[in-house]
Amino acid sequence: MTSETGSRDERASGASRRSFLKSAAGVGVTMLAPGVVLYAAAPPAVAQRAGRPADSKIRWGLLVDLNKCPPGCDLCVTACADENGLHRPGAHESQWIRKVNVHDPKTDVRREVPVMCQHCAMPACVDVCPTGASFKRADGIVLVDRHICIGCRYCMMACPYQARSFVHEPQENQRPEVPRGVGTAEACSLCVHRIDAGRMPACVEACAARAGGAMVFGDLNDPSSAIAKAIGTHRATTIRADLGLDPAVHYLSL
Amino acid sequence: MPRAHYREIEADSGFVTLMLLFGLALAGGLLSSLYMRHYGHVVSGMGNQIVWGIPHVFAFFLIVSASGALNVASMASVFGRTTYKPLARLSGLLAIALLAGGLSILVLDLGRPERLTVAMTNFNFKSIFSWNINFYVGFLAIVAVYLFLQMARGLDRYVGIAGLVAFLWRLALTTATGSVLGFLAARQAYDAAIMAPLFIAMSLALGQAVFLVVVMAVCAGTGRPLDHALLHRMARLLAILLTATLYFAVVQHITNLYSPKRLAVERFLLVDGGIYTALLWIGYVGIGSLLPIGLGLCPAAGRSRPMILAAAVLAIIGGLCHLYVIIVGGQAFPLLLFPGMEVSSSFGDGMIGSYRPSLPELVLVAGGMSLTMLLTMFGMRLLPFVPMSFVDEATGAPAHAVTGEQAAGR
Asked: Which residues of A touch B115 (CB under 8 A)?
């Protein structure tokens, strides 16, 4: 009896546990599914193989899902600052990525939009730079050659996204991978040093690991990539699309 | 054929004192540039929102004035107004000096001024800024040749063609200078083809004004004659050129008012922009345009040298106000990233940018202006740029000569 009772209790207990696990799994899937649609489908590391030159068949880009970008979260901003040796925001400090609070007065909808260099296909900063210091890499990443930047700031006048900063003071304790020079212009490099090492940009990594996974990084030219699929499936938009600069940074629910 | 007689100016005590003063100011400008280079632009009033400030206002002013200062030489060589010819040499010298002063400010304000050679050897031909570098260097070379042909004996027949080349070149130069702002599609205050003709008109007017002030000061300071009829004609021309500039400015703003995406920036500049609105209406339209236009066209004022001088000085003040509103005011208004939305951020999004010129910037500006004056005075001391008498070489008739004291209005 005792053993039968015991085995019945165990079976009941096992059924209850299975039921609980099923329910928990169901709730978990329900809770997490929307959050993993974009990100989890992507190959884990979409950056290029280390040591390879930039490939003109690739165009690196970002997709930011604003529905998953938590209010008040600045993990992408701090990750960028830590990665690139930037100081905290100040009147003269560089900001390679910033969160812009956007409020629609007609609908009262509020968004926090991470804005960085949009790595345009037809970048105004590259067009106007007198020395060619602003340039676009074969894989679409827009960079500044700090050796021939004369610090005229014309690129800052030309950028519609206010994505460029000027290094106003001599820099100390710089990151070896990200040398910065006083008197030159700079902007988000899409963490080019990480991409060239086969890794993802710091903001994307931080967002995926500790926030809502709102950012997807990948090759816009590859139709099978998660970013290309998401942009194609959802109605992704770009900032100031009317200017025709063809930015590589896309947004969902902008 | 009788010719105007030229002679170098004397190095009297006034000349030496002025050279010393301007030399000190130039040294201050150089030190200021070194100071900004050492500590970075954090010591300037410029930041990541307003990236071009008072140095650029004065640099643009000097550069466009350089082109306009050549008006007198063009009138003589290109348009056959031979009465202007005695002043053509000074016109060329001033054009070179003004451009050198403007370029010195631009270069010394760079984040990395020591990389000037980089800018001279790395060209991005899609950049209008790069084109401008070529236009400026070309302008200096063309005007130098133009001056040489005017001053050399037996080469008079080439002066006309050199004058024509210089005239066309300066039109191209000011077109390119205006396009530095006109090609900026990102900013609502700029991004307009009318910037090119606006800057051409502005250059003609401001150059004329600067030339009037300089020629009156030189003749008064050295006791040389100055033909009053010629002076009066130049004052009337200044009024016409100021009217043309005002016309383009009015058309620019009216055009913008018809564009919904530019309404906000126009409201800012024309109505509630604080210092920028005041500078536009009071500084540019009132003091810098209507008043000098009235003085230049008024027959009574045209007979008075102090009035002509006042008209020129007011035009210069107005031009600087106008450039300040265009360059700094245009940047102060925030970029339109999200049309129709209210935006804010820690990087100045949605905010009117603040800018207060710092002392290093002002000293740098004084240095560049002083370089212009030093080069002009040094040139006049070294070579015969200034006429001793006014003779219309076409008719041989001596123009109505007036002494330096009369020139000063005394």
From this structure: 148-151
